[in-house]
TrEMBL record, chain A:
Cellular localization per UniProt: Cytoplasm; Nucleus
One GO process term, biological-process aspect: proteasome-mediated ubiquitin-dependent protein catabolic process
SUPFAM superfamilies xref list: N-terminal nucleophile aminohydrolases (Ntn hydrolases) (SSF56235)
One Pfam assignment: Proteasome_A_N
Gene source species: Brachypodium distachyon (Purple false brome)
Name of this protein: Proteasome subunit alpha type
From TrEMBL, chain B:
SUPFAM superfamilies, sorted: N-terminal nucleophile aminohydrolases (Ntn hydrolases) (SSF56235)
Keywords: Cytoplasm, Nucleus, Proteasome
Name of this protein: Proteasome subunit beta
Entry's family note: Belongs to the peptidase T1B family.
CDD domains: proteasome_beta_type_3
Any Pfam family: Proteasome
Oligomeric form and interacting partners: The 26S proteasome consists of a 20S proteasome core and two 19S regulatory subunits. The 20S proteasome core is composed of 28 subunits that are arranged in four stacked rings, resulting in a barrel-shaped structure. The two end rings are each formed by seven alpha subunits, and the two central rings are each formed by seven beta subunits. The catalytic chamber with the active sites is on the inside of the barrel. Component of the proteasome complex.
Naturally occurring in which organism (per UniProt): Brachypodium distachyon
UniProt lineage: Eukaryota, Viridiplantae, Streptophyta, Embryophyta, Tracheophyta
Length: 250, 204
C-alpha cells in the first residue's frame, strides 16, 4: 500500500517517512563498515574493506579513507561511486573557502555544506539520494579534534565514537560500553580493532581487510597530519591487540 | 608609468649542480614611496617547487592563492606533488585564461624534478613559457639582472657558490633600480634541504 509513495524521493508517505532515504540507508547497511573514535590527541578512523580479491589492483592508497583537506579526512560506507562525487564536492568546497578566507575551513562548516548538498537530493530535482554515509574526522582552531557522522538524509551529528555500514548498530552499542573520555589515539585504535573484530562477518581479521587512518597534530611542528596506516604497521597492530588469526587459504 | 612598475620588484632563479636558487628583493612600493621592506615574492608550492612572482603585488598574491587552490586539489586527487614542468603548464594556462585582461605578473618557476633535476622557467604575463638551462630573471630590475647573471653565472655550481653568485647578482642589479631593493631574500634548494637567507643590501 505504501509502495505508491516510494518511487518519488520528494514526497512524504502518509506515515511521514521518506522511503527513498530509508532505502538508501538500507543500501549502506550492506556495505563495508567504518568506525570513528575521537581521542584526546586525535581522531581514529577504521574501515572494513569488502572486496579483497588478490586480483584487485588499486592505484589509490586507500579504498575507504579519503583526505578532504590537510586538516580533514573522512571514512566512507555505501556506494563508492556516490561517495566519489561527494568527496570531490567537499574538496572543492574546502579549497574555495581557503581561497576566500585564507584560512582552513572549520570541520563543522564543511560537514554542513556537504549535508546541505545531500538534503537537496531529498527535496527537489527528482533525483535519488546519495547512498553514502560519512564519518568525518578533523581538527580546527576553535573546537580542536572533532568527529561527525552524516547519512543520506543530510542529517549530521558530532560524536565521540560512531559506526556506519554493516552491523553499525552492534558496533555502536559496543562503542557505547567501552568508550572512555580522554582516550589516547593508541587506546582508540585498540578499541576500534576490538569492536570491528566482533562485528565483522569474516572469520579472520587480517591487515588486507582493514584500513586505518588517523588525524593528529605533528609533535614537532603542531601541524595537522593525516596518516593512513601501512599494511605492515597494520599487521603489527593486530598482533599487538591479539587479534590476528591465520588467514584462510584464498 | 607602466602598471608593471607600480610596486617594483626583482626576482631571479639560477640552476646549480643538483640544486637551484631563487631570490627576490623585499621592497614593496607605491610608485615612488616605499611602503614595506619585508614583502614576500617567493612562495612555496611544495617542498621542491617554488614560485617567484614579480609585477603588481596584488596580482602576485591572488595568483599565488589561486595556484595553491589548484595544486591542493591536484595533490588530493593524484596523491602526489606536481612536477615543475606540469606546474609551469598550469601557470601558463591560468595566465592565458585572462588573455584580454591579464594578471600583471611575470612568474618565475623553480623546482627539482623527478630525479632531482633542477628546472627553472619564466613566462610573460599571458603565459608564454621560456625554459632556460642557466638562469631566469624578472621584474623592474630585469635588464640589470640579465647583465649581472650573464657575467657572473657559470654552470654546475655547488649550493654555497650558487648562493654567493645569485646574491651578488641580485644586490648589484637592484642597486641600479630605484623601485626594487631594500634587502634580498634567497632560497637555495637541494634534494635534502632548503636554506633560506635574508640579505642586507643598500637600504634605499
Amino acid at each position: 500500500m505504501s509502495r505508491r509513495y516510494d518511487s518519488r524521493t520528494t514526497i512524504f508517505s502518509p506515515e511521514g517517512r521518506l522511503y527513498q532515504v530509508e532505502y538508501a540507508m538500507e543500501a549502506i547497511g550492506n556495505a563495508g563498515s567504518a568506525l570513528g573514535i575521537l581521542a584526546a590527541d586525535g581522531v581514529v578512523l577504521v574501515g572494513e574493506k569488502k572486496v579483497t580479491s588478490k586480483l584487485l589492483q588499486s592505484s589509490r592508497s586507500a579504498e575507504k579513507m579519503y583526505k578532504i583537506d590537510s586538516h580533514l579526512a573522512c571514512a566512507v560506507a555505501g556506494i563508492m561511486s556516490d561517495a566519489n562525487i561527494l568527496i570531490n564536492t567537499a574538496r572543492l568546497h574546502a579549497q574555495r573557502y581557503a581561497l576566500s578566507y585564507q584560512e582552513a575551513i572549520p570541520v563543522e562548516q564543511l560537514v554542513q555544506s556537504l549535508c546541505d548538498t545531500k538534503q537537496g537530493y531529498t527535496q527537489f530535482g527528482g533525483l535519488r539520494p546519495f547512498g553514502v554515509s560519512f564519518l568525518f574526522g578533523g581538527w580546527d582552531k576553535k573546537h580542536g579534534f572533532q568527529l561527525y557522522m552524516s547519512d543520506p538524509s543530510g542529517n549530521y551529528g558530532g560524536w565521540k565514537a560512531a559506526a556506519v555500514g554493516a552491523n553499525s548498530q552492534a558496533a555502536q552499542s559496543m562503542l557505547k560500553q567501552d568508550y572512555r573520555d580522554g582516550m589516547t589515539r593508541e587506546e582508540a585504535v585498540a578499541l576500534a580493532l576490538k569492536v570491528l573484530s566482533k562485528t565483522m562477518d569474516s572469520t579472520s581479521l587480517t591487515a588486507e581487510k582493514l584500513e586505518l587512518a588517523e588525524v593528529f597534530l605533528q609533535p614537532g611542528t603542531g601541524e595537522v597530519q593525516y596518516q593512513v596506516c601501512s599494511p605492515d604497521a597494520m599487521g603489527k597492530l593486530l598482533a599487538k591487540a591479539g587479534l590476528t588469526q591465520p588467514a584462510p587459504d584464498a | 608609468m607602466s602598471i608593471f612598475e607600480y610596486n617594483g620588484s626583482a626576482v631571479v632563479a639560477m640552476v646549480g649542480k643538483n640544486c637551484f636558487a631563487i631570490a627576490s628583493d623585499r621592497r614593496l612600493g607605491v610608485q615612488l614611496q616605499t611602503v614595506a621592506t619585508d614583502f614576500q615574492r617567493v612562495f612555496k608550492i611544495h617542498g621542491k617547487l617554488y614560485l617567484g612572482l614579480s609585477g603588481l603585488a596584488t596580482d602576485a598574491q591572488t595568483l599565488y592563492q589561486r595556484l595553491v587552490f589548484k595544486h591542493k586539489l591536484y595533490q588530493l586527487r593524484e596523491e602526489r606533488d606536481m612536477k615543475p614542468e606540469t606546474f609551469a603548464s598550469l601557470v601558463s594556462a591560468l595566465l592565458y585564461e585572462k588573455r584580454f585582461g591579464p594578471y600583471f605578473c611575470q612568474p618565475i618557476i623553480a623546482g627539482l624534478g623527478e630525479d632531482n633535476e633542477p628546472f627553472i622557467c619564466t613566462m610573460d604575463c599571458i603565459g608564454a613559457k621560456e625554459l632556460a638551462k642557466d638562469f631566469v630573471v624578472s621584474g623592474t630590475a630585469s635588464e640589470s639582472l640579465y647583465g649581472a647573471c650573464e657575467s657572473m653565472y657559470k654552470p654546475n655550481m655547488e649550493p654555497e657558490e650558487l648562493f654567493e653568485t645569485i646574491s651578488q647578482a641580485l644586490l648589484s642589479s637592484v642597486d641600479r633600480d630605484c623601485l626594487s631593493g631594500w634587502g634580498g631574500y634567497v632560497l637555495v634548494v637541494t634534494p635534502t634541504e632548503v636554506q633560506e637567507r635574508v640579505l642586507k643590501g643598500r637600504m634605499d
